[in-house]
């Protein structure tokens, strides 16, 4: 069940329904709860929605150095929602969105799911996207870090696959308002793999996600992280805003603290949830459609491994994933407990994307 929103004090139900009837076509399809959430949390007012959008559009002339390739109402609205209808901040995000693409042209050449690099990353589960949303209506994205085979996928292609996935998902107005959750499982992620996370590519990712994309991230959760992932903080700290450092939580291999924030009924079994193990091919099949052939389908043979059928085509063989390493998280039996004093380090915020 989604969150319940109470009517403002002294507002009659008939008046509230009348306000909803006045909403613009840009709010069509949103649930009443989501419309009220947008009003309360994002300062979204249907009476002045078009004026807010036009004021952001009017600022475009101040940045002649940037090619604003899309400026329609629905597109600008997602930037206003991402910045709680602060028009100057929304325009800054809009400008950074297009500037990031101008400065990284190679990343956005052939920026579609059937690009070979993006396709490989998608098939390898970068990212995973759960079908159902959490109790706040947020979409849950998954990253199984150990599945990064550096001989198959460059970090840039993984980032491109994530950005493309977000572009598809952010078309949903409900997600523009409710936002996203990202869970990164660091099980079996080796020091050698971590050594490839250089400051330059981390900066590229942070700029693309934190500074240049109109998504609301309600939390970024690390599980099963080794000590050297903690050490990455010193690399990324200079690139982070103060506000964004509050949104990543380190849960280690005890997922009780994760379940206090994301209920187990919304999580696959890899994260101690009640859902079946995540099928790595789910999101890839959604984006690739007929290009994702049955021969690429995953079959679950165990809790910790997933296998892929071999294909005769060289291209399909190149794009087919290796056996996937899965989470080895441990969840204590019984009710969820509050953190002990000595456990605080495990769930302290590290970084966030907003």
Automatic annotation (TrEMBL):
GO-annotated cellular components: clathrin-coated vesicle; early endosome membrane; trans-Golgi network
Polar residues compositional bias, start-end: 345-354
Q: Name one Pfam family in it.
A: CRAL_TRIO
GO MF, one term, reads: phosphatidylinositol bisphosphate binding
Cellular location(s)? Cytoplasmic vesicle, Clathrin-coated vesicle; Early endosome membrane; Golgi apparatus, trans-Golgi network membrane
**What is the protein's membrane topology class?**
Peripheral membrane protein
SMART domains, sorted: CRAL_TRIO_N, SEC14
Q: Residue ranges of region Disordered?
A: 311-354
Q: Which InterPro entries match?
A: CRAL-TRIO_dom, CRAL-TRIO_dom_sf, CRAL/TRIO_N_dom, CRAL/TRIO_N_dom_sf
Q: What does this protein do?
A: Required for normal morphology of late endosomes and/or lysosomes in neurons. Binds phosphatidylinositol 3,5-bisphosphate (PtdIns(3,5)P2).
Kindly provide the name given to this protein in its UniProt entry: Clavesin-1
Lineage start:
Eukaryota, Metazoa, Chordata, Craniata, Vertebrata
Q: State which gene encodes it.
A: Clvs1
